[in-house]
Amino acid sequence: MTATEEKNTTGNSGGSGAEANPTSSPSWRGFRRFVRGRFDLSEDKASESEVIENIRKGIEFKGTNLWVLVFATFIASLGLNVNSTAVIIGAMLISPLMGPIMGIGLSVGINDFELMKRSLRNFGFMVLVSIATSTFYFVISPLSNAQSELLARTVPTTYDVLIALFGGLAGIVAQSRKDRTSTVIPGVAIATALMPPLCTAGFGLATLQFKYFIGAFYLFFINTVFIAIATYMVVRFLKYEKHSFLDSKKERKVRRSMVLIVLVTLIPSVVIGYRIVKRSVFEANADRYVATVMKFPQAQVVDYSRMLRADGSSYIDVVLVGEPVSEDAIDNARLQMSGYGLLGTELIVHQAGERGTDDLSMLSSGYRDLLSEKNRRIDELLQRVSTLKNDSLPAREMSREIAALLPGTTRAFVSREMTYTAEGAVADTIVVCLLQNDRKLTADERGRIEKWLQTRTGTQKIKLYLENGL
Fold it and tell me: Is residue 345 a part of any domain in this protein?
């Protein structure tokens, strides 16, 4: 091989290497610098001591913090009781629940056992006060029905886990900034929704419906753990300095204690989180299966339910109407369940006529109730039409009569009107009469027309207005 060929070969090899490793190109390095600059958290970052001190202040529940917690609990309980989303959001905005939870995550991140003990102590006190306050409210409240806003806080979902995690990340990032006046922290308070589950747990205790208490506290526990995990993750990402101990034995003891507390908290949350994800996946698969497979030419699905039991077994219950579907077609649908991740799930199919006379009676009763409601509404509308007819005045005939009574009348307006208070409430109903005449009426003529209006309209409440120089 000549020197020229060797040089060309070496050059080609170098070119191939550059092509094989695009990350070393200037454009790639420039892109990395751009992305790193955009996502850099060092800009506007508060000092480590300032962030820790700010979180420490929010941990303690006494004085103002405690009173605000009690008032926020009452507000949230009222919102759940009357099913008002706006009131619940207001309670979440003012509740100081994030402090101890972020304190727990921070204490693990910086290896501060004293901060962890203080955070856990205040966290337990916060939970106790909130549940006691909401229980007291629901005991004295005359409304004992579980509204939709309340029921929504009894069944945790995968989305609740993700909301708590990302909400916690946003919260600790906002806490680590110099400017904490942004909308991030109030937004986190709304998104993570810590207050409503505690109030729902109080409702469960007050009404002795322990399934609500367990479900709501279950949701609150999940939110708490994942907010604390998010706080720990950001604290370690920002490389906050860990506490060191002069006594190595004490350091080992503290670390073992912290690891034990973290495991006791984390293991149940992992198990709970796994079950939530498993149930959510099952429900999504069941919905997709029913929508795709349970389609028949002469029958359709009118209702279905799906359930994943605590023992791991599951079922899908489907109600069909229309022409009867053959057992072969239903068996074929069962064979397709494994393709939707539903292996071992029981398929229960109800067809029209299988449920007997009880369901027909319920259906007939439902139609009767619906018809009765429609008839009642029609009667109300007819009554309103009749009232409007009685209240209206024969303005055209009355205008001609006024012209006959008062020669020279060029225009007449007569109407029954309502007067209102400053608050918008109806105050009274009066008759308004506006007359245009080419001459000035005498006092006798004015009195005569007012008496005629009172007799003609059947009311003493007359307002007479005269125009054209009168």
Answer: no
Across the range 109-117, mean pLDDT stands at 85
pTM: 0.56
Q: Which amino acid is at 142?
A: P
User: Domain span at residue 226?
Assistant: 48-243
pLDDT per residue as tens digits for the range 168-227: 888 888 888 777 655 666 677 666 678 888 888 888 898 888 888 888 888 888 888 888
Q: State the CB neighbour count (10 A cutoff) for residue 432.
A: 16
Residue 302, classed as helix, strand or coil, is strand
- Site of tokens 């229309």: 322
CA distance 128 to 126: 5
Give the separation between CA 227 and CA 231, rounded to whole angstroms: 6
Measure CA of the first residue to CA of the last residue in the chain; give whole Å.
Answer: 124
- Of the three residues 243, 270, 303, the one that is the final residue of a domain is 243
**C-alpha to C-alpha distance for 394 and 404, rounded to whole angstroms:** 16
* CATH number, residue 449: 3.30.300.30
Comparison of pLDDT for 397 and 185, the residue scoring more: 397
Structure tokens given for 7: 């040089």
Helix axes 64-82, 195-206, angle to 10 degrees: 70
Amino acid type, 33: R
**In whole angstroms, what separates CA 76 from the centre of its chain?**
13
Query: Is 332 among the domain residues?
Result: no
Q: Which CATH number goes with the domain that contains 230?
A: 1.20.1080
For residues 138 and 77, the answer to whether their CB atoms sit within 8 Å is yes
Q: What percent of the chain has pLDDT over 70?
A: 79
Identify the domain boundary among 186, 210, 243.
243
User: Is the residue at 87 inside a domain?
Assistant: yes
Indicate the burial class of 177 (C-beta count within 10 angstroms; 0-12, 13-18, 19 or more). Answer: middle
Residue of 189, 154, 142 whose CA lies nearest to 170: 189
Does a structural domain hold residue 256?
no
Phi and psi for 239 in degrees, rounded to 5? 60, 45
Can you tell me the mean pLDDT for 279-286?
Answer: 89
Other beta carbons within 10 angstroms of residue 185's beta carbon come to 16
Mean pLDDT over the full length of the chain: 79
Which pair of tokens denotes residue 382? 């007819």
β-pairing, 346-351 vs 462-467, is unpaired
* Number of domains composing the chain: 2
Beta carbons of 437 and 468 less than 8 angstroms apart: yes
Binning the chain into helix, strand and coil, the percentages to the nearest 5 are 65, 10, 20
Report, as an integer, the average pLDDT of 90-112.
85
Place of tokens 């939707």: 340
